[in-house]
């Protein structure tokens, strides 16, 4: 307990020392001080400002080129692409892309086709955390690849077989792409 309090005091002293140093050097504007502190403690600036190239890369991934055979567009997702964007709301900024297809064919055939697309494009398959019973859980398939502007993980999730039979609305395939801006690996 004492060690933890001591570490907390050291962090506070480091921040206060940094602010004092900035003030002593004549850097007195609020924006510069906050920008300095933002790198480690605060989230006051838009860290998504320069993510356009990565968003375009994600939007152009073959997984988002259009419905694979055995699927059809879902209302709101008729246009090919991932509508990629950056989320900067929790301090863990990430670029994401998302689309949804309606499953019209055999689930296994669609999974095999998406695996083939990934292999042709140089993606590495990763182990998947069990999807359980929630159709919105992470995927039945997961792939990763280093793109020019960042490491990306793509997950493909199918509605569980039981719910797909019981509820035709849930016969969907969700494809998501994620890339953490700080380089932190994204789980499947």
Q: Layout of helices and strands, plus pairs?
A:
Elements: H1 2-24, H2 30-38, H3 52-59, E1 71-73, E2 85-87, E3 94-103, H4 107-120, E4 124-125, E5 141-147, E6 150-158, H5 161-166, E7 172-180
Antiparallel strand pairs: 1-3, 2-3, 3-7, 4-5, 5-6, 6-7
Structure description:
- The chain has 188 residues and is α+β, with helices and mostly antiparallel strands.
- The chain has two domains: 37 residues; 129 residues, no CATH class.
- It is 32% helix and 23% strand.
- It has five helices and seven strands.
- Strands 1, 2, 3, 4, 5, 6 and 7 form a seven-stranded antiparallel β-sheet that branches.
- Strand 5 and strand 6 form a beta hairpin.
Q: Please tell me the total number of domains.
A: 2
Helical content (DSSP H or I, runs of 4+): 25-40%
Helix/strand structural class: alpha+beta
Could you tell me how far the N terminus lies from the C terminus, measured between alpha carbons in angstroms? Answer: 35 Å
